[in-house]
Write a structure and sequence with these properties.
The protein is an alpha/beta fold. The chain folds into two domains: about 100 residues, Transcription Elongation Factor S-II, Chain A (Up-down Bundle); about 325 residues, Uncharacterised protein PF01937, DUF89, domain 3 (Rossmann fold, 3-Layer(aba) Sandwich), CATH 3.40.50. It contains 18 helices and seven strands. α10 links the parallel β2 and β3. The longest helix is centred in the first third of the chain and has 26 residues. The radius of gyration is 22 Å and the shape is globular. The two termini are about 20 Å apart. This is Sugar phosphate phosphatase. It comes from Coemansia thaxteri. Keywords: Hydrolase, Manganese, Metal-binding. Its cofactor is Mn(2+); Ni(2+).
């Protein structure tokens, strides 16, 4: 195994980059998918500008639209990635130092996928953050809220299911088997909630959303978990007895609901005394969770009428309100806490947490017993966007965050939407490629993977 101690521009395996012949997913993303997202931002923002009553805000909005169009032009014409302009967020020096050290004079099509895509979202955020009238505008909010609004019936079903499951788990707390089965169900729901990702499926219809959610509820997707460490994770979780679990969140809306329901179950059955949710400080990758998104979800659960959820039964509304009130109480009394550290929207992969994200690593994650990383982007940042040999052990790809003696158990829950992956049996990989060539980035297959960290000596391989 090559050394896992490497720099962003000198990696042991090739980073994913856009193939010049247009044959890979990275090229498709750079040539079509991400420019389409930028166009959507421009169009949605233009509508907001047109609706503004302040003439100065309208004038500034038109100027920002021009900056967004300029960014898109730079992307599609393969210009050099330029330094960020100061915007007051606090991480611009780190971004520009990273560019200067590792990717000076690199262009969009020659830059690694993870580098240019993350840079693009940070550039967009900077355009808005530098403005006077639009600095707090979430240009993805309408999409996030509309998608959740379209799924309220499924939301109610999932909340009712977990409410019953939690009550059963409390009553049968002395039955390890019942708790283990309940935990496995909750973990899978959190995993497959990641399919509702608006950066990958920006035009997700309510019908497609309902279909996805039905598969989550039925457990139909179980056979598509291509690496599954659930039993080893449960071996750790079952011994926490009031421990701390951190969740590095991915998407708002229905996926966030699954994560909140998992946290709900963990606290009420006594496994966790503290849950820390790590959110994004700026709008990110279309549907990533901000603090505002999290609080919005809790408010909607408490008052479904806020978004016109007229089809819900009185019983469904009562369940949602009871759960929402409980979540609001958890936030108020510190059982649940939101943290929006800048590292999560920074340029570095997570192997650099002990150095470039030292405050987050030393003061937050190493204090947790278990850290769950949700979704595709977090997975790519965990293992780095490389052409890893597919059977490379997940733990080996993590670097220092796996080997640090203080390391928590790290769990990755990811539906695969990019062609980098580790920890897959080579024979199984061959079977998957024979069955479906795009299985690594179709979003149809998932992994539940564990790095035991400081629990290593007490877990079974």
């Amino acid at each position: 195994m090559p050394s896992t101690d490497f720099t962003p521009n000198n990696t042991p395996f090739r980073p994913l980059t856009a193939a010049r012949d247009g044959s890979n997913f990275t090229y498709e993303s750079l040539h079509n998918r991400v420019p389409h997202i930028l166009t959507d931002i421009v169009n949605d923002f233009y509508a907001a500008v047109q609706g503004a009553s302040d003439a100065a805000a309208v004038a500034e909005g038109k100027a920002l639209t021009g900056e967004l169009s300029k960014l898109k032009h730079e992307m599609v014409t393969d210009k050099i990635l330029t330094p960020l302009e100061e915007d007051g967020v606090g991480d611009v020096p780190a971004w520009n130092r990273w560019l200067e050290l590792y990717f000076s004079a690199v262009t969009w099509y020659s830059a690694p996928f993870l580098a240019w895509e993350t840079y693009m979202y940070r550039r967009v955020a900077a355009i808005f953050k530098r403005s006077q009238h639009w600095s707090r505008f979430d240009y993805f909010a309408a999409k996030k809220e509309a998608t959740f609004r379209a799924s309220m019936e499924a939301v109610a079903r999932m909340c009712s299911r977990v409410d019953l499951l939690t009550r059963d788990s409390i009553v049968n707390a002395s039955s390890p088997t019942r708790l283990r089965v309940a935990f496995a169900e909750m973990l899978q729901a959190s995993l497959w909630g990641n399919q509702t990702d608006l950066s990958m499926f920006p035009n997700l219809s309510s019908g497609a959303l309902e279909e996805m959610q039905a598969r989550i509820s039925s457990g139909e997707n179980s056979s598509k978990v291509v690496a599954n460490d659930t039993e080893r994770i449960w071996d750790i979780v079952s011994r926490l007895d009031g421990g701390r679990v951190d969740i590095v969140l991915d998407n708002a809306g229905f996926e966030l609901l699954q994560d909140v329901l998992l946290a709900h179950w963990l606290v009420l059955v006594g496994i966790a005394k503290k849950i820390v949710f790590h959110t994004k400080r700026v709008p990110w990758y279309v549907s990533d969770v901000t603090n505002e998104d999290f609080r919005w979800l809790v408010n909607v659960a408490q008052t479904p009428s806020l978004i016109g959820a007229k089809k819900l039964t009185a019983a469904d509304e009562a369940t949602l309100k009871r759960l929402g009130d409980q979540w609001s109480e958890f936030l108020a009394n510190g059982t649940w806490e939101l943290k929006d550290e800048l590292f999560w929207t920074g340029p570095y992969g997570f192997r650099y947490l002990p150095s470039e994200g030292k405050d987050v690593w030393d003061n937050e994650l190493t204090r947790a017993d278990l850290v769950i990383f949700k979704g595709d982007l977090n997975y790519r940042k965990l293992v780095y966007d490389l052409e890893w040999p597919i059977s490379t052990p997940f733990v080996d790809a993590l670097g220092a965050i796996a080997t640090d003696p203080r390391a928590p158990a790290i769990v990755a829950l990811r539906t695969s939407k990019c062609d980098t992956i580790t920890g897959i049996d080579s024979t199984k990989a061959e079977e998957l490629f024979a069955k479906q060539k795009d299985w690594m980035y179709s979003g149809e297959y998932g992994v539940i993977q564990l790095s035991p960290g400081r629990w290593q000596s007490s877990t079974q391989d």
